[in-house]
Design brief:
Number of domains: 1
Shape: globular
Distance between the termini: 7 Å
CATH architecture: 3-Layer(aba) Sandwich
Order of helices and strands: EHEEEEHHEHHEHEHEHEH
Structural class: alpha/beta
Oligomer: single chain
Strand content: 15-25%
Helix content: 25-40%
CATH superfamily: P-loop containing nucleotide triphosphate hydrolases
Number of strands: 10
Strand order of the largest sheet: 2-7-1-8-9-10
Largest sheet: 6 strands, parallel
């Protein structure tokens, strides 16, 4: 079975991209040709003749195989808004076929594809497309990145319930230290481990300017399906 996964988060800005890049490096450390994908990205800059997103570029850099940016990020939207609004501003609509085609091209060149979603699990991709629709189409298990800060228990448990209620498989979760001042972190981690019915794949420490490759050792790739 291919170790492809879909990475979602308890919210936006909680380290999904950093965790995805660390996961790519962890897979590469196991000898796999792993590539990242950000199907939909809003908040792009015009660069080298096209709209490009920092998160997608980070995934491209962390990948083991050189692939076309357009395959990593089929929908690159200029404005830093919810995808439904950003695509409306761009005069386009996010649809499944271009994403599925791009994913197929990536999968043909790699042993594993790490697909990063947008925002939290319930953030829509378009007026008629939810992230679970993409997960079902790609038949991917889900990894939940939990931003470790006050409120993370509520956010993590609600996200896990929503993933399972949508019929997707929660394969595991990754803790992300987004708040270095958070009190009782270890106690919160123990409560998360007791309540989330999926294994913890690791906890990424708060280290400003840390390289994802250096964080790969904090993840347990043996947990991959």
């Amino acid at each position: 079975m291919r170790p492809d996964v879909y990475v979602t988060g308890t919210d936006t800005g909680i380290g999904k991209t950093f965790a995805s890049c660390a996961l790519l490096h962890a897979l590469r450390g196991q000898g796999m040709r792993a590539v990242g994908m950000k199907p939909v990205a809003s908040g792009c800059t015009w660069l080298d003749g096209g709209w490009k997103n920092d998160d997608a570029l980070a995934l491209q850099q962390a990948s083991a195989v050189e692939v076309a940016y357009a395959d990593i990020n089929p929908f690159a939207l200029e404005h830093p808004l919810a995808p439904e609004l950003a695509s409306r501003d761009a005069g386009t609509e996010v649809t499944l076929p271009p994403i599925l085609d791009a994913h197929a091209r990536l999968a043909a060149q790699a042993d594993a594809v790490v697909v990063e979603g947008v925002g939290g699990w319930a953030a829509p991709l378009s007026s008629s497309l939810m992230q679970v629709d993409l997960v079902r189409a790609l038949e991917l298990p889900v990894v939940l990145v939990v931003g470790l800060r006050l409120g993370c228990l509520n956010h993590a448990l609600l996200s896990a319930r929503a993933i399972e209620a949508d019929g997707a498989t929660l394969a595991g979760w990754i803790g992300s230290h987004v708040d270095p001042a958070m009190a009782r972190v270890e106690d919160n981690l123990k409560m998360l481990q007791a309540r989330l019915l999926a294994p913890c794949w690791g906890v990424l420490p708060h280290m400003p300017n840390a390289e994802p490759a250096a964080m790969a050792g904090h993840l347990r790739v043996a947990q991959l399906p």
